[in-house]
Amino acid sequence: MSPGGPGRLERAIAEIDGVARDLGLDGFPVRFEICPADVLYTIGAYGMPTRFQHWSRGKAFWRMKTEYDYNLSRLYELVINSDPCYAFLLEGNSLVQQKLVAAHVYGHSDFFRHNFRFAGTSRFMLETMAASAERIRSYEFRYGKDLVETYLDAALAIEEHIDPYARPDGPAPAARSGGRHAPEDDVPYADLLTLGEPAPEPPPPAPKRLPERPEKDLLRFIAEHARDLDDWQRDLVGIVRGEMLYFWPQVETKLCNEGWATWAHTRIMRRLDLSDAEAVEYAKLHSGILQRGRYRLNPYLLGFKLLEDIERRYGTDHLWEVRETQTDVSLVRNYLTRELVAELDLYLYRKVGDQWQVSATAWEQVRDGIVRSLTNGGHPVIVVEDGDYNRAGELYLRHCFDGWELDATYTERTLPSVYRLWGRPVHLETVVGDKVTVFSHDGERVTRKVRGPAQRRVRA
Amino acid sequence: MAGFAVFHEDWSLYRKGRLDQQRHQEKIKDAIRKNLADIVAEESIILSDGKKVLKVPIRSLEEYRFRYDFRQREHAGQGQGGSKVGDIIARDGAGRGPGQGPGAGEQPGVDYYETEVTLEELEELIFEDLGLPNLRRKKEALLPTDTWRFGDVRRTGLMSNVDKRRTLLEALRRNAMAGRNSFTPLAPEDLRFRTWEEEIRRESQAAVLAMMDTSGSMGSFEKYIARSFFYWMVRFLRTKYQNVQIVFLAHHTEAREVTEQEFFTKGESGGTRCSSVYRLALEIIGQRFPPEDFNIYPFHFSDGDNLSSDNDRCVELIHALLEVSSAAGYGEIVSPHYAHLSSSTLMSVYQKVKDPRFVSVVIRDRSEVYPALRAFFTDRGAAQPGQTA
Fold it and tell me: Which of A8, A18, A328, B353 could make an S-S bridge to A4, C-beta 3.0–4.6 Å?
């Protein structure tokens, strides 16, 4: 328990609650749970206290816990997007630490409630995940732990490959392939030019393709079209997909969300009546959160600096709009300026020989580089091109190559997971060293075939 | 804003992370088990004298997914001010702390995952299905030891040792006497506890006679193989006997006893006469290891390049050795360059030795050390000793 006992902590949070309200923060009610490090790190590894069990989370938990035990890293806060919002406070933290975390939490809760990307997320995910975990446990009883694990392993291997922008039901609208009409369709009033001419023969109906257009949601496609999966196996795929859809808005608003929460805790803490010692401790903690990352951008720092800059340039009202309408990609693209890049000393770096070198400092390059690394959560975009490849029900995937190659070893070892779910040979088209290359897996081994030269891309 | 609430609940039963970590550990064990053949001959282990925690490479525990090759893509970072194009921010493998370097923990192309295991865990896995062949009971000293065994049930004891099954049975019995068909109520007198007894162990002794051909034709590969084999052999025997002694005998045309250091490092030149080392082994057994007190395990490594006139004498001496030994073995190490050649003349005469206590194996590759160990330490139907550890 924090020094001063629960009474003191509750009074402190009540004060923060009032200040947050004054500032206009308008989140879900917050349920603070005080828990030991073990539990905090478990929840950190699972993303949710009720999520289903899997060894990879045990591995993550152990890594985080070890880092904490050796004082290498520290989890400051853990907030769950739900109504009420759940926040976990580490037992044994000092009162100032708890105040800082609580203030930070009010920022997140407000963000979850108001950012447009979260509008579609379930606020009852705790319960949903508990129900899913329960179902998975019942499958384990019925079909055996090992078998269930094999399928979970496989589904988790491709968990990022969902389509967070697809409409919740029904096929994607045709306009999604926007900009790919034949050029003459783009001429205004093109239909008038052919007035009076006999209507052209309707084109013969093309053989039905599956999917009709490239499908980004691998998990959904597999759950719907894999021929040999049992219902419970489809359910597993669906569970993994549903949870990823829930987490996805958090993946693509890391900068905004952490920036906003940091902005909130700064504003709230300023208004609290801290003693000198508390003020110093807070300043230390705050600067610890805002450390620069040589190899990896610190989302707290970059997000916070971007938002502060917006407030300075456009006023506080605009800031509230930004927290509602931006994601990381748009925030960086719209608001990262030459001055900020210089002030924060942002750069891009890459591997040259056996050393890592700064490769760009020009602000536009840096901005575009950051945007690119944030696109699709930093994951390669892979789509289903053909679900009946070779007319044999094989699965043909295509990596939408954008200049960055896939890790070949990882690709070779992920394909068997896709095969496990699809049940028939799977293929993945990508580009390796300027050559279009197809990796295939037939259940036995992985082969690589070069298809031909890759088309030149603008971005290299 | 609908306010807040603070809860401080008992989380002591929330053990999900630990349970899954256990599952992860099990998977690591599984992976090790599958890779034992490679791990047994792993240099870092054989040469790790005294180190308790070992890093073992394991394939198959990474969570594979489609991802970018991080060596090819650009990453974003942040300096302390004034960074310029061309500045070097890191070198591969140069003193970076955990979780700091670019792509820490995501080295592409590396197809294994290093995990830490203790030597004990590793031994447990390696020795899991090794057994002692052909044991004959030797004279043994009776010694009290610090091991114990749960072998008794009593009415009093530690709560942590409660025997649930027996306790419930007692409750059921007592309730039935009272005409109730139920486990409850449970009374204190139903409690049954498992209790332990100290065990008296028998002091047992074993001697390993490590023999190796050190003639010019034995190179560093051959010595390394022999070294890995003896390393595990001695470790295994130590789990079965309290006292394991090992003597090192090197030979070319003549044999002599050497130190461990010399045994594994020194090379000599000259031809090979294997009978010399067997004769020396018999002499040493006669002087130091009376067969009625010791379980004796002679094992000889050679490349098989023996004087063919000597082969018959070798077979005779092997029989003499078998008279006094629990098991004896001959390993022929064929370096990969000669792998296509058929085995030596020495091997072909040994293959005619039909004693079940004698094993001859050919090792062509590091990964064959483990099968060789298993071939030698197979329980061939002989009775287990009373002193299994």
Answer: A8
Q: Say if residue B210 is in the same domain as residue B334.
A: yes
B326 close to B291: Cβ distance less than 8 angstroms: no
Residues A384 and A360 in one domain: no
A410 interaction partners in chain B (CB closer than 8 Å): 64-67, 108
> Residue A169: pLDDT above 80?
no
- Is B343 found in the same domain as B371? yes
Residues B356, B252: one domain?
yes
- 8 Å CB contact of A292 and B84: no
Beta-sheet strands, E only, within B79-122: 88-91, 113-118
What's the whole-number average pLDDT of chain A? 89
**Residue B354 structural domain:** 204-376
Structure confidence at residue B388 (pLDDT):
32
Name chain A contacts of B59, Cβ cutoff 8 Å.
none
C-alpha dist (Å) from residue B284 to B137, B192, B215, B290: 21, 55, 22, 9
User: Residue A398: CB partners within 8 Å, gap ≥ 6?
Assistant: A214, A382, A383, A385, A428, A429, A430
Contacts of B258 (CB under 8 A, 6+ apart): B248, B249, B250, B266
CATH of the domain at B357: 3.40.50.410
B313's CB contacts (< 8 A; 6+ apart) are B275
Does the CB of A407 have a partner CB in chain B at under 8 Å? yes
Distance CA A1, CA B91 (A): 44
Helix A299-314 with A328-335: angle, nearest 10 deg: 50
Q: Which residues of B201-235 are buried (b: 16+ CB within 10 A; e: fewer)?
A: bbebbbbbbbbbbbbebbeeebbbbbbbbbbbbbe
E strand map for B294-336: 294-302, 328-333
Are A56 and B63 an interchain contact pair (Cβ–Cβ within 8 Å)?
A: yes
Residue range B157-180, pLDDT digits in tens: 888 888 999 999 999 999 998 888
Label the pairing between strands B255-258 and B243-251.
antiparallel
Diameter of chain A by CA atoms?
88
CB–CB contact B1 A26 (8 Å): yes
Q: Which residues of B are less than 8 Å from A58 in CB distance?
A: 17-24
Q: Do A57 and B82 touch (CB under 8 A)?
A: no
How far is A44 from A78, CA to CA, in rounded Å?
7
Q: Determine which of A358, A395, A399 to mutate to test the interface with B (most B C-beta atoms within 10 Å).
A: A358
Q: From the list A28, A61, A295, which residue is nearest B77 (CB)?
A: A295
**Token pair for A437:** 């290359």
In a shared domain, residues B285 and B153: no
Q: How many domains does chain B have?
A: 3
8 Å CB contact of B78 and A351: no
* Helix, coil or strand: residue B236: helix
Closest Cα partner for B282 from B322, B330, B318, B321? B321
DSSP A85: E
B64–A408 CB contact, under 8 Å: no
pLDDT per position as a tens digit, A115-152 = 999 998 999 999 999 999 999 999 999 999 999 999 99
Q: How confident is the model at residue B296 (pLDDT cuts 50, 70, 90)?
A: confident
Which of residues 290 through 309 in chain A touch B, CB cutoff 8 A? 292-298, 301-302
pLDDT of the residue at B95: 37
Does A417 contact B at CB distance below 8 Å? Answer: yes
**Domain count for chain A:** 2
| Three-class SS state of A59 | helix
Q: Is the pLDDT of residue B96 over 60?
A: no
- Minimum mean pLDDT among A65-74, A254-263, A281-290, A425-434: which range? A65-74
| B108 contacts A407? CB cut-off 8 A | yes
- Helix and strand element counts for chain A (H, E): 17, 10
Q: Is B218 in contact with B303 (CB distance < 8 Å)?
A: yes
